[in-house]
Amino acid sequence: MGKYWNEEIECMEPEKMRALQSERLVKQVRHVWDNVPYYRKKMEEKAVTPDDIKGIEDLHKLPFLSKADLRDAYPYGLLAKPLSDCVRIQSTSGTTGKRVVAFYTQNDIDLWEDCCARAITAAGGTNEDVCQVCYGYGLFTGGPGLNGGSHKVGCLTLPMSSGNTERQIQFMMDLESTILCCTPSYAAYIGETLHKMGYTPDDIKLKAGIFGAEPWTEEMRQEIEKSLGIKAYDIYGLTETSGPGVAFECECQTGMHINEDNFIAEIIDPDTGEVLPDGTKGELVFTSITKEAFPLLRYRTRDICVLTRGKCKCGRTLVKMAKPMGRSDDMLIIRGVNVFPSQIESVLLKMSNASPNYQIIVGRENNTDTFEIRVELTDEMFSDTIRSIEELERKIGQDMLSVLGIKAKIRLVEPNSIPRSEGKAVRVIDTRKLV
Ligand code: ADP
Ligand code: ZN
Predict the structure, then answer these.
(1) Contact partners, residue 56, CB within 8 Å, separation at least 6
(2) Is the minimum distance from the CB of 345 to ligand 1 under 6 angstroms?
(3) Inter-residue contact 191 to 169 (CB < 8 Å)
(4) Is the pTM value of this prediction over 0.90?
(5) What is the pLDDT of residues 277-300, one digit of tens each?
């Protein structure tokens, strides 16, 4: 499986893993206390000192960090190493406001790339593979992270970045790419373009895709697997914890294994901050136990998911996180009802004749929320009779009502009228936020 299959760590006895995490946590807390006045103050406010943290069982005593802290401390306030030891910055894509900057020492970069190499290995990647990386390069962590991981595994790496989709397909064919790395929405678009260009999955050599950086549903996975003729693996991460590779999927595709030798995961109640038991849905919190330059402790991701422990069929014992439903701040509250865009995607893609291109438009008229779902017709549907289109509209409306518990106006729109995504998809237009 290559040198990035780390059986000792990935299949470690849970007790041994806790001991390793405890040892690293104790060191990390001391490092942060000594070097990050911002966090030290937070600890002092909670009357905690490094002496109180003797192992992972004391983790709950530490204060949380949130995105607001990162913005407060911008740019250097959470730096734990002299700038002269740092070799890189990366930054969030700014989906939810002002960008956040993270710093890396060379060692941090190595550990991050190792995590990505593990993910590529779990997806079956070896030095025989040709890995096409179409995540954005630059400040966004997607491109640099997978690029580094691909080099470590020894794949022939195609640093394509996103965009220019026909050229992506040309390279994919000419250089016989076997692994594709990009956002799931871009993978769907590449699949769509491949078919539009008159090709089928038999014309390409792709076998696996490593897709992440945004929420995507099981239905979207099936759609992409079919259109590109591959097995699609999920990968998760965020800039604040390094980037992609914090967690990755194995061949069982039943959740993502968290690289617990580098990160301690907790699930908390987002309202009270109380730590919840495994198997309960809540907000994911990470503590980086190996990072040097930007070692966040108990960072609240706002991603909503569930952790499950136990030996996976693949042999790994690393805890698994379910696909995040989205961030707590992606959740729309429409006429008082909580709606996640991923629920809408799931309903749409369950219908055999719907397309993965949709947009959610929320507004306000006469003090009431308006809620419209625009769904793009496929070419075949477009040429159907008006009656069958109306029938489809009615069916989507009914299914949405039963899943969301709220009525949405369904609008079927012409093929190719909804903008495609080359990076993270923008699915929601909420004009209520604009006023
Ligand atoms: P931004 O906060 O600006 O989007 P990042 O580019 O660092 O910054 O994105 C990290 C976020 O992307 C995560 O917190 C999570 O919400 C989302 N994300 C990353 N990977 C996945 C995934 N596999 N599934 C669902 N959401 C993901
Ligand atoms: Zn597994």
Answers:
(1) 18, 21, 22, 25, 264
(2) no
(3) no
(4) yes
(5) 999 999 999 999 999 999 999 999
- For the CA of 95, the closest atom of ligand 1 is 3
What are the CA-CA distances from residue 262 to residues 108, 230, 246, 367 (Å)? 11, 30, 8, 48
Residue nearest (by alpha carbon) to ligand 1 atom 24: 215
User: What's the rounded Cα separation, in Å, for the pair 398 and 405?
Assistant: 10
Residue whose CA lies nearest to ligand 1 atom number 9: 238
Q: Is the CB of residue 111 less than 8 Å from the CB of residue 60?
A: no
Is 215's C-beta closer than 6 angstroms to any atom of ligand 1? yes
pLDDT digits (tens, 9 = 90+) for 177-206: 999 999 999 999 999 999 999 999 999 999
- Minimal-distance CA residue to ligand 1 atom 27: 214
Domains in the chain (CATH in brackets) are 7-329 (3.40.50.12780), 333-430 (3.30.300.30)
Pocket test for ligand 1, best of 67, 74, 95, 321 (most atoms within 8 A of CB): 95
